[in-house]
């Protein structure tokens, strides 16, 4: 059941809840309203401000409504920042509580997971949000946003951590003298991240632009290294086998988020490991191999023995 709030704070509360950080607002005037020769949809006299959230949420909402009443387009950052004055992705808080999509000229499939918030930025355009049941790493959220945007034919550029989108209660002056009210439909629902991960199609990963010659390393099998990790599922991969796993260093992830980790083996035999989380940047297959234990299984064939099959498992030390 959706409600129809008319103030920006309703969106803040939906995507941030009681999390803490700096909320960013960006406002500007359509340049062609100042200079008739200016290109369409270009903003001028841009103002960017930071607000301590949640303490200054109401002040930020009042400010946006005032700016909109002054014929200025208004935007808000879709996640919080650690410090004010810096809208770079590196300054984003490490975890977020929702996913987002700017449909742009696309349309999110009707059979997809229902958004928990729909912001009508104009008569024909929408911004969609999916509130999550618990925080996830910003890297995982950005990856999911790209998958959502690809599926919807939306703006993949707005999947990034530094994106700003329109808040409800303001007005859209892009088509001035026609003006669109920015309206909202917001529910109290929330999605389990794992459910969304399974429901949203994967983006086919391009071949790795690294070494392409034949693998000449020692003969090893990927499955020998998976006994000590939790395998979530096997993923499609045209270059070999690939699995989504719980990272061996999951305790170092923000809020213990267990998504965004993959391990695989190319058809030629090469093994690889990748984790999206900041704490795991730079960790390679060699790090993974040193952390988990290798297990090999052998079948024993004893002449004259007529009992059940005998398998021997050897667990190598780390």
Could you explain how this protein is built, in words?
The protein is α+β, with helices and mostly antiparallel strands and 318 residues long. It folds into two domains: 8-199, Alpha-Beta Plaits; 222-315, no CATH class. The protein has helices spanning 8-16, 57-69, 138-152, 193-199, 285-291, and strands at 21-30, 43-53, 73-77, 95-102, 117-120, 126-137, 164-165, 171-172, 180-181, 183-186, 231-235, 240-245, 261-266, 271-275, 295-300, 310-315. Strand 8 (171-172) and strand 9 (180-181) form a beta hairpin.
List the helices and strands and how they pair.
Layout: H1 8-16, E1 21-30, E2 43-53, H2 57-69, E3 73-77, E4 95-102, E5 117-120, E6 126-137, H3 138-152, E7 164-165, E8 171-172, E9 180-181, E10 183-186, H4 193-199, E11 231-235, E12 240-245, E13 261-266, E14 271-275, H5 285-291, E15 295-300, E16 310-315
Q: CATH homologous superfamily of the largest domain - what is it? A: RepB DNA-primase, N-terminal domain
How many individual β-strands? Answer: 16
- Round the mean pLDDT to the nearest integer and report it: 86
Low-confidence stretches: 206-211
CATH classification class of the largest domain? Alpha Beta
What percent of the residues sit in helical stretches (DSSP H or I)?
A: 10-25%
Count every helix, treating DSSP H or I runs of 4 or more residues as helices: 5
CATH topology of the largest domain: Alpha-Beta Plaits
CATH architectural grouping of the largest domain: 2-Layer Sandwich
Which geometry do the CA atoms define?
Answer: elongated
Radius of gyration over alpha carbons? 25 Å
Numbering strands along the chain, what is their spatial order in the largest sheet? Answer: 2-1-3-7
Work out the strand percent: 25-35%
Q: Alpha-carbon distance between the termini?
A: 53 Å
Question: Sheet with the most strands?
Answer: 4 strands, antiparallel
SSE order: HEEHEEEEHEEEEHEEEEHEE
**How many domains, in number, for the residues?**
2
Give the structural class: alpha+beta
């Amino acid at each position: 059941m959706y409600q129809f709030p008319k103030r920006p704070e309703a969106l803040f509360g939906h995507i941030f809840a009681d999390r803490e950080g700096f909320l960013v607002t960006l406002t500007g005037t359509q340049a062609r309203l100042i200079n008739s020769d200016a290109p369409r949809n270009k903003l001028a006299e841009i103002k960017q401000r930071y607000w301590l959230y949640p303490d200054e949420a109401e002040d930020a909402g009042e400010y946006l409504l005032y700016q909109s009443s002054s014929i200025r387009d208004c935007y808000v950052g879709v996640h919080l920042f650690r410090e004010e004055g810096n809208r770079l992705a590196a300054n984003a808080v490490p975890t977020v509580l929702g996913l987002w999509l700017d449909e742009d000229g696309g349309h999110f499939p009707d059979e997809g997971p229902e958004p928990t918030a729909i912001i009508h930025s104009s008569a024909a355009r929408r911004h969609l949000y999916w509130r999550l049941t618990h925080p996830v790493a910003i890297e995982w959220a950005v990856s999911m946003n790209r998958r959502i945007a690809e599926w919807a034919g939306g703006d993949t550029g707005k999947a990034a951590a530094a994106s700003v989108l329109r808040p409800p209660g303001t007005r859209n002056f892009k088509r001035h003298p026609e003006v669109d009210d920015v309206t909202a439909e917001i529910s109290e629902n929330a999605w389990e991240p794992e459910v969304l991960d399974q429901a949203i199609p994967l983006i086919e990963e391009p071949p790795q632009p690294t070494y392409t010659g034949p693998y000449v390393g020692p003969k090893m099998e990927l499955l020998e290294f998976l006994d000590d990790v939790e395998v979530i599922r096997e993923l499609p991969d045209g270059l070999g086998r690939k699995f989504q796993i719980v990272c061996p260093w999951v305790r170092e992830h923000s809020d213990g988020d267990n998504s965004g980790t993959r391990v695989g083996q190319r058809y030629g035999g090469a093994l690889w490991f990748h984790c999206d989380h900041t704490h795991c940047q730079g960790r390679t297959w060699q790090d993974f191999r040193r952390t988990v234990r290798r297990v090999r299984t052998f079948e024993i064939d004893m002449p004259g023995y007529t009992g059940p099959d005998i398998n021997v498992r050897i667990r190598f030390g780390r």
